[in-house]
Amino acid sequence: MKNIHKLLGLALSVGMVSGVTSCKEDFLDVDQYGIVNSDAVTESESNMLAGLISCYSEFHQKTNKDEFKPNLWMGCHPTMDTQATGWDTDWNQQKWKPETGELRDEWSALYRGISNCNEYLATIEKLGEEKISASKVLQDYIAEAKTMRAYYYTWLAQNWGRVPLIGTGETYDNTPEKAKAATYDEMWDWIIKDYEEAKDVLDWKPFNDEYGRVTKGMCLTYLADAYLWKAFRSGVSATEADENVKKAKEYLKEVIDKGPYELNPSYTTLWDPIAWQKEAIWEEVADPQSWDWAANKNNTEFWSTFYAACPANGGWGTLYLSWEWYTSFEVGDKRRDGSACTGPVDFKEIVDPITKQALSKVAKSQYCYGHHPYLNIAVGNGNDLAAHYHYNMNGDFAPSIWSLKYWRTGEPEWNGQTYPPCHVYWKRLANVYLDYAECCFRTGAAAEGWEYIEKIRERAFGYLEDGKEEALTNTYLPYYQQYLTSKFNVQSPQVAPTSYPIPFGHQIDKSNYVNGQTYYAQVKEALNFNLEVWQVALLQERRKEFNVEWGLRPDLQRSGVIAEHVAKNYQDDRGRQSNEALIDNPWTPQYGFTYSDQKMDMPIPQSEINNNPACEQNPGY
Q: 65 FRET partner, CA 20 to 30 A, in 356, 386, 446, 503?
């Protein structure tokens, strides 16, 4: 007999962190594991809710106990803006193989989630249409299950292209053989159908105010994304593709006009420990915990600090940000300091390709140069390996730039470690604004498209913080004052800061601000992009806004610019040199790597090919 599992889901629990309060309820913050027999699911509303939790079980995927892999690698590394060392470097050069373990584990997790949704829907449908149509609660549960099923399929489609489609009542157990979707149209239509059926049932606020559950905004945002993917991947005519873009535009505008979302006035505070800020549409939230290596090495739930931190400060050295990304920012754009810190690099007189100025003039951050402003520690801890453009990590030379989105607190010390409060944003309002701008450009509404790009840029330069400095300080500073003297800070006690680590307010006078259309015309010319100016703008703005966020690579690929990005932002002649020479050269070596969109249909895991004779391997493997 089949079972519906009630699972503990750390990723969707939204608790309080030290010094910060929240009035929002926890959805998957359950006391213990339990099992609800499928026959008992329909006996009560509480049982139906317990069964529904199984549909969320793989949202927080535990691939080799590492939440960053392969999600970060799939979502960011193919853009080359994020870099890695060791065996993870394969993800920078599309060298994944059918035998790659992370791909197999991700594939399995997604199909586990789909199977749970299918079984749950089949169980609820046994109640009959009359009972379901009379119950808003049942309709909401069905809509949530369908949305989660579509979400899992979206991640499969974005990374594997066409995959086997199993529907209500089907699981990996009872449907061991199934061919892939015959076309991209079939793949995306399958996904769109679930989102379309759920969107009018779901509300803007999560059911019972339990944040972490899907909402109308999440559903519409992913539905729009699906229509844009269909326009990009399908073999339909140009006219039909345009209709898909118009559909996406309609749903994105609904999210903008009718949703409860707002841009956070400050970009830098999006990764501070306050859960479900108004900009968030779909995110994972983790609370801080202290853990012991020996006791917890096999079951630790969140490893973000180790991936993001400088190795000399205790990190693993598996996530770096490139100098090409770092130097793409204009002076005064606060997103760079809100996203990354560098080692105490000895800047050479090397000319930046966009500004045509020496890096010593444009790349030395006032707040994040050789310093982690949120932990108030030196980056590298005096280790001279961090004082070069590339850090020597056991013979691999990676950029001396480390993410502050995931290494904001939680110092990665090997004894008495902590992991930090952390946000993993899948979709936020900024994604919607830039996706809507893309739709505007593609439908002949260029002026409106530039308007939405400017909304993002004005926030980036700190203009939305003006007049709110005191309120922002009162909201976000107390956590850091408490953290730096708390048990979660390995280096405590420290003097509590009296101001927010990166000051609020704009850093350049508005009269010196250059609008996006003018600036990106200059970037297009400087790097010789074979793209329209608006495409260059969206490419660069997404890189700056969404670095190390899961949706970056899918957005660049779906909008058709990633190949040109790799070719022009990572020009091959910048990096033809030995590893050792990288110490004094910031640019990323390509080693002959040429981006292939076909390779972004990653290989079907070999285990699936072996066990499912009806499933054929993707081209190129």
A: 386
